[in-house]
Here is the input.
Amino acid sequence: MIRFDAVGKRFLSGFQALDDVSFELVAGEMVFLTGHSGAGKSTLLKLIALMDRPTRGNILIDSQPVQRFTARDVPAYRRTLGLVFQDHRLLFDRSVFDNVALPLIVAGLPHAQIEKQVQATLLRVGIADKARASPITLSGGEQQRVGIARAVVTKPAILLADEPTGNLDPDLSEEIMRLFLDFQQSGTTVLVASHDLRLVRKLEKRVLVLDHGKLIDDFRPEVHRSTKVQHG
Amino acid sequence: MAKKNRSRTVENRGAAPPGNLPLEIPVHVLASPLRAWLRSHGYSLFSSIGRLWRQPFTQLLTFGVLALALALPTMGHLALKNMRYLSAAAAQPGDVSLFLRPEIAQPSAAALQSRIQTDPLVKQVILKTPEEALAEFKQLTSFTDALNALDANPLPFVLVVELSRESLQSGRAMALVEALRANPEVEIAQFDQEWLFRLKALLALAERAIWVFGGLLALTVLLVIGNTIRLELAARADEIQIMKLVGADNAFVRRPFLYSGFWFGAIAALLAILLVAGAVWLLTPAVSGLARSYGSEFRLLGLSLVESAFVFICGTVLGWFGALIAASAHMSAPENPQ
Here is the structure.
């Protein structure tokens, strides 16, 4: 589903954010991306979302090289992704409902269908009662649920999240992560960047570890369990 | 719940460009392109009205500037239109009054009359006797007592030469007047229209000045709206970025701003039309009074429906275009500067 072939990203400043990164995610997989801050987690996600372009190597999404997409293709491509951010990126001048409806409005869906889909999504992330509230009145955890609802309202095949629990306390963080697990179980390919190693280990999913732009570990718990080797 | 969706692939990718995208856009976010486009317009239309509606007073100054910029050349045009109308009304009788020498008597005057009458540029010649002239003079002025005090009629014979329409239009009128003036019987040849020819030249100049002035003020409207939209784009940069991240294309992001520009132009144009109508309404009694003192029934001409429509269309097109310039400049900036 997502494949990196020797991908490198060097910024104009000369900073090498990613260096020779190769990995593959199969459809329906849930993978964590960890590493110290500045290790290149965000850059990697941005390359997938075409918010930035690699300077070396190939990125293939469903076997198609993304560098072939022109600026005109990007909007349609983004509609196939769901993006979640650490700072939620909500619009505070409109209600929770309108925030979640945004991708559907962009897609030009009829109002009745938007209504139905947004309500269903809000129910699924557990904030159905907040539809008419302003996001500013919600707690951090609730705001992130709105962000997640907006990302999944189009039922994308790939869900990308950049430090979705960065500002949340451990209990809330786990609730949010369980939400991602739930979406994986519905068939979505999920890639979550997080530096919360304790939580990442607890969820026992595959983990990619970045260090100074290099991929230094690709840890699969099921393999380790079967060979009785404990990691870290 | 999303498991089966990707197998339900659809040939038509909705509003998406038909490129070779790796992932199918999920079926439930596919809308037919035309309907999606129409809905997007509806959304932009209402969101831009809503935005204006929620903060009408913050934009009051902008509307004032725009309305004035549109009203000023419109008023100039209106002033010109009224002058044209007046000059056309005054030009109707293209008369040359030939005041004959006092010693010229009835037979010579009549002879001159028939001689002038033969000129093809002359429509007709009317002979006025001194008695007729005196009677007319008494009617028109309040000098009746003074005139009665005279023991003899001081007025000479007058030939009123009506010039043909061709002579007035072909510009040969002035040469004809000179020829008439050269007659030895004529003491004074008075051509009322001489000033009109000069006025016409002046009005032509004024018209050009108004177009130049109007052009500059149109540019002002364009810049003011462009700048207003630019500020709005900057204030909503986060929203624009979020829109793009959820898959909005440039046209979708730009559309509400184009509608905003349209509304700015449209409302300013309506205000300008009201301003002009108000000015006409205020001036009409004074102008009518002045005209009556000259014995004229003239009433100030206001904006016609066509002229109002022209102002409105200019306003909306300028507003839309100003917004387009600002939005296009914003869109071409790099999306992800960090």
